[in-house]
Amino acid sequence: KAGVTQTPRYLIKTRGQQVTLSCSPISGHRSVSWYQQTPGQGLQFLFEYFSETQRNKGNFPGRFSGRQFSNSRSEMNVSTLELGDSALYLCASSSRGSGNTGELFFGEGSRLTVL
Amino acid sequence: TQLLEQSPQFLSIQEGENLTVYCNSSSVFSSLQWYRQEPGEGPVLLVTVVTGGEVKKLKRLTFQFGDARKDSSLHITAAQPGDTGLYLCAGTYSGAGSYQLTFGKGTKLSVIP
After folding, report:
1. Domains of chain B, start order
2. A92–B100 C-beta distance less than 8 A
3. Which site from A7, B45, B54, B97 is most exposed, i.e. has the minimal number of CB atoms within 10 Å?
4. For every residue of B6-33, which 3-state class applies, written as one string?
5. CA distance B54 to B80
6. What is the Cα A68 distance to its own chain's centre?
7. Cβ–Cβ of A100/B30 closer than 8 Å?
8. Residue A10, SS3 per DSSP
9. To the nearest whole angstrom, how far is the Cα of A41 from the nearest Cα of chain B?
């Protein structure tokens, strides 16, 4: 079956702009998580959605937001971009419901560069 | 905030050598996963361990979960160039958001032919 698809793969923005990233999970997966990956901080958890509800949120400012649609596709938005937002943004889907040891299936990521 | 430390940060070895990478936390894990990430790709799950003292083998890779569930190790026997990549451990903690995986910063492994 098709894997997790993220679009766009690469994008360049300037400070102050906003960006929207999209993630299509594996068919049947209702959980979608977002992570930010940078060389200095590694993978940091942004948020997780399950059945259109945000179940958990990481330690990021309110400029970072997300949502999930009824078909489980998810988007994340970053407003008022800063240079430090340059990173690889990874989306992961999972079939896990109430448990927390399910495998995460990651997409290839969206690489954002802020100039 | 839970902190998960991995060591070493970088490792460069010759093909055929053995190696061990470590993952440590001051808190008890509910479960722990190991992922491998290759350049330009997302991480891929290698194993999940949930029981203290558990040992799992995946071909030349051996994963061990500490008895106290605060640490884990990954041992690779006779490393091959195809093992090159970023190895990440990720844990879930009791009491934390049940759906949040905390990742270590990873060990970047290079296996030289």
Report:
1. 4-112 (2.60.40.10)
2. no
3. A7
4. EECCEEEEECCCCEEEEEEECCCEEEEE
5. 25
6. 11
7. yes
8. strand
9. 7
Rounded distance between C-alpha atoms, residue B30 and residue B83, angstroms: 27
In tens, the pLDDT along A34-44 reads 999 998 889 99
Supply the DSSP symbol for B40. Answer: T
CA distance A99 to A5: 24
Mean pLDDT, residues A35-54: 92
| Mean pLDDT (whole number) for A39-60 | 91
The closest of A110, A85, A75, A111 to A17, measured between CA atoms, is: A85
DSSP B99: T
Q: Helix, strand, or coil here: B81? A: helix
pLDDT tens digits for chain B (113 residues)? 568 999 999 999 999 999 999 999 988 888 899 999 998 899 999 999 989 999 999 999 999 999 999 999 999 999 999 999 999 999 887 655 555 788 999 999 999 99
Label the pairing between strands A53-57 and A87-94.
unpaired
